[in-house]
Each structure stands twice: as C-alpha cells, then as structure tokens.
Write a structure and sequence with these properties.
single chain; 3-stranded antiparallel sheet; Double-stranded beta-helix; globular; 16 strands; alpha+beta; 8-stranded mixed sheet
Length: 284
Amino acid sequence: MTVGITVFGNGRFVADVTGADLTGSITDEVPADLAAPLRHAFAEHPVLVMPSDGLASAQLLLLAGVFGEPQVQLLEDYRTSDTPAISIITSEQTDLRGDGRRIVFGGAWHTDDSYFAVPAKATMLYAHEIPPTGGDTLFADTTAAFEALDASSRAELQGLRVVHRYQSRRNVNAVPTRSASEEALTPPVEHPLVRTHPETGRRSLYLNPNRMDMVVKLDEAASDRLLDRLIEHATQERFVHRHVWRPHDVVIWDNGRSMHRATADYGDARREMHRVLLRGAVPV
C-alpha cells in the first residue's frame, strides 16, 4: 500500500493522508504497510487527517491502536457499555446529571483531559454524521506558539506549573456534571505550563482555557494576566488551522502539542462524532 502525506499550509502542523484504504484494510488488524507510515506521519504532524468510507466501532478502535492504547472514557453517560473506549458526542446532548442544559462538547479552546494526573496522549475523532454546513474544528499549534515567544517570555515560563480542575473557576464552556465516582477519579492536578515532547525534544505551551485554574505561586490576578496573555497569543490566526469535516473523516491530534475548539454554527442540523482517547504519560 502506498500511503502519501499532504501537508496543509506552510508548516508541518496538519497533514492529510492519501492513498490509504482505511475501510478495506482494517479487518482483524491494521497491516504493517499502513500502520508504520501512519505512526511516522503522526510523529511529524501533530494533527493527522485520514479520510475513510466509513468505519465500524471495532475498526475505529483498531485504527486508534496503531497510535497508542485506547482508554475507557470517564463520563459514563456519554459512552456505550459495549464500547466504553468510545464516547458519543452529538448535537442533542444535555447535562443529564445537572440542569439539563445543552452541552456543546469542546465549544471553547481546550486540550483533552488535562484535569487528569495522566492526560490522554492523543484524541481520535470520527465523523459519523456531519451537518450540511458548519461544525468545523479549529486546531491551534502550541509548539509554534511557544517558539514564537521572545526569549524573555520563554524564560518567564520556565518551571511554572498550573492547577487544572474539571470545574475550573475560569471555565468558559459548560461541562457535564460528574457522578460522585467520576469526581473521585479527577481531583485537582498540577501540570507544567510548558511541555517537552518525548521524541522531538521541542517544547509547547500546555494550555487548557477551560480547565486551568491557577498558576502555582502566583496570586489570582497575576495568574489570570499570564494565562490570558498566553491564550490570546496561542490562538492567533497564524497558529490556527480550520478543519472542514467530510463524511467519515478520522482526525487524530496530539494533546501535548495542540489545542482545539468545536464550532456550533449549524443550527438544528444533527452532528454526531465518535471519540477515542489514547493513554498518555505524566507531562514533563
């Protein structure tokens, strides 16, 4: 199988896979001549787009396994009992344990699962059903954003750590109410403000506007000023790529090198995405 990689824009942040028959290739396992180039491409490109003709849940999990180990999703209300490693994200979902309001998953800039002590390494999202227009996903290159800071700004961030919470005082997007057992699994945690990629050694801003609570050792006002400045910097147009979904697209992204945000501009049309998280390591 000849797998090609087409890079979007001038950087290496996002790439599209060409020449791969995902549907036909993924049966009991992913062939080595497909798996190897996919892994190599993902190491080079933090966001990888893989067109498909449609994948069953078992195929999606096999494909995810090329890049890492799928993990069980935290929120029981948004997954199915037969595939607990896949969460179902739809336009009709509401806060079932809370006030019943509509939940737009990922409607604000964030990176997945930063409120865990060991956040997910990567996220894979499959477009099961997309609206006629709208519903795009934006991705921000947090490696390029860090490298674009001047030397004094980079030095200022050295060694800083941030408290992440499921329900942060800075939350900008409504999140589902957790069960008591889910709360027990996700106490507040600390992570570095700058992460180092284990393979490339490049550093990236580790930002989650929807979960970051406080910079450790700064007062609230100073913490807010610093975080707001970094978020504004990292989400400039020059660092952002917009993915326009096609039916059955599969997109995987590295949570340590990016942020993302869903757009909810499709009115009453239906949107259903299937999400797989890959087990990560403690951020450094």
